Amino acid sequence: MDKFISSSDLAKVLVLTVQRVNQLAKDGTIKREADGKFEISSAVEAYYRFKLLTDAEVDYQREHAKLEQAKRKKCELELGILDGTLLIATEVESLMANMVVTCKTRLLGIPSKLAPQLIGQRNISTIAEILKDEIYLALNELKEIPAKKLGIVEEI
Fold first, then answer.
1. Are strands 38-39 and 4-5 parallel, antiparallel or unpaired?
2. How many of the other CB atoms lie within 10 Å of CB of 113?
3. CA-closest candidate to residue 152, choices 91, 96, 88
4. Which of 47, 33, 46, 45 lies closest to 5, judged by CA?
5. What DSSP state is assigned to residue 123?
6. CB of 107 closer than 8 Å to CB of 138
7. Are 91 and 138 a contacting pair, CB within 8 Å?
8. Nearest to residue 25, comparing CAs of 40, 13, 43, 41?
9. What is the distance between the alpha carbons of residues 74 and 146, in angstroms, rounded to a whole number?
10. Around Cβ 3, how many Cβ atoms within 10 Å?
11. Which of 4, 32, 116, 120 could form a disulfide with 37, with the two C-beta atoms 3.0–4.6 Å apart?
């Protein structure tokens, strides 16, 4: 035996406003009988079926939006790599390590390279000039490494 209730009673059962119940009836979500009342069991079932589908659709739309946002971000990153405005961190680390090793090796080689030239020098300004020239030569070697790609190496 099914029970029929008014829209205000159904609103209380579903914890909705009377206006929302009437809107759901107008939309066809829940069925209103000819006398304006609702069969309680079918109205409650229809409402919760509607809620489940609506919630699932909202979750799907939210998840789909997140997916599209992630795809867009991935494409932007890939484009940045392709056009050279973005570098891969491991490549930058490798390049920087190579630059440091090259610089260290070159600078540590200066004393043994210049010692024979400087042994007879007595003029401090001449010694300083020879050392300065060799240091600049060592630093300019860094330009051979594609550091300009990093945008951090200035002309020396």
1. antiparallel
2. 13
3. 96
4. 33
5. -
6. yes
7. no
8. 43
9. 26
10. 10
11. 4
Once rounded to an integer, what is the mean pLDDT over residues 11-24?
A: 93
E-strand ranges in the chain read 4-5, 38-39
* Tens digit of each residue's pLDDT (9 = 90 or more) over 75-133: 999 998 888 788 888 888 888 888 888 888 888 999 999 999 889 888 999 999 999 99
How many residues does this entry show for the chain? 156
Provide the total of helices (H) and of strands (E) in the chain, helices listed first: 6, 2
Residue 4 has pLDDT above 80, yes or no: yes
- Dmax over Cα atoms in the chain, in whole Å? 119
Q: Which two tokens stand for residue 47?
A: 């409402």
What are residue 88's phi and psi, to 5 degrees? -80, 130
Angstrom CA distances, 82 to 75, 79, 85, 88, stand at 10, 5, 8, 11
Q: Give me the amino acid identity at 66.
A: K
| φ/ψ of residue 26, rounded to 5 | -65, -40
Round to whole Å and give the CA distance between 32 and 26. 9
**0.70 exceeded by pTM:** no
How is the chain split into domains, by residue range?
4-80, 87-150
Measured at the alpha carbon of residue 84, what is the angle toward residues 136 and 99, in degrees to the nearest 5? 30
